[in-house]
Design a protein that fits this description.
The chain is built from six helices and eight strands. The protein has a five-stranded mixed β-barrel with strand order 4-5-6-8-7.
């Protein structure tokens, strides 16, 4: 991901305002051990560029906790990075050794399972808080939704995604899969927007 890509996204209305930007850790020492090609500062600078050029861009992450030699300070740096960005959602995992990988050859898996579990739960809880914050901000707004499928919870509702890749559910009415629909958001969960379709021409 670079500035040219962000500028291109900002220039075209048919490109979703959503970026999945894996970070893995908020600690420079852990990132170095992982052989990642970015620092915390470089990553946050890129986030600032995204938010400056695409203010309503949805951003998600990948996060790994419990990497070999990860300290409490390293973990807290990950939490602080999450608080700074306030991601829309993320994919969060605890480290598990995979035979044949460089990490398995180079490092001892020396963070206890209990510590991994506790750190992962802290990350998940914080992301839940931020996801709820993000979806709540849509209440009272109208979003354009691409219908993808029938809602899992109700056969009388469609499920689709808005420009920020957030799931939206609403009554089927006369719409079909593949339609773009304007939906007024009335409620939400931390992962889903709940609304009603509207006709902007009325």
């Amino acid at each position: 991901m670079n500035l040219d890509v962000i500028k291109t996204m900002a220039s075209y209305s048919n490109i979703c305002n959503y970026i999945h930007l894996p970070v893995q850790s908020g600690s420079d020492s852990v990132l170095k051990e992982m052989n990642r090609q970015h620092t915390r500062k470089e990553y946050l600078d890129l986030i600032k560029q995204i938010k400056s050029l695409i203010p309503d861009c949805g951003i998600s992450h990948d996060m790994i906790t419990g990497f070999p030699n990860e300290t409490d300070q390293d973990h807290n740096q990950t939490l602080s990075l999450m608080r700074e960005v306030k991601y829309d959602f993320g994919y969060m995992f605890k480290y598990s050794e995979r035979p044949g990988t460089l990490a398995a050859k180079k490092f001892e898996d020396n963070v206890s399972e209990l510590t991994k579990k506790n750190r992962l739960q802290e990350i998940v809880n914080l992301q839940q808080e931020h996801s709820n914050y993000r979806t709540t901000n849509f209440i009272g707004k109208t979003v354009e939704v691409l219908i993808e499928k029938e809602s899992k919870k109700s056969k009388s509702q469609w499920s689709g995604r808005n420009e920020q890749n957030t799931v939206v559910v609403f009554d089927k009415k006369n719409y079909q899969i593949g339609d773009f629909v304007n939906v007024y958001i009335k409620d939400c969960t931390s992962a889903t927007l709940i609304g009603e379709p509207i006709n902007l021409s009325n």
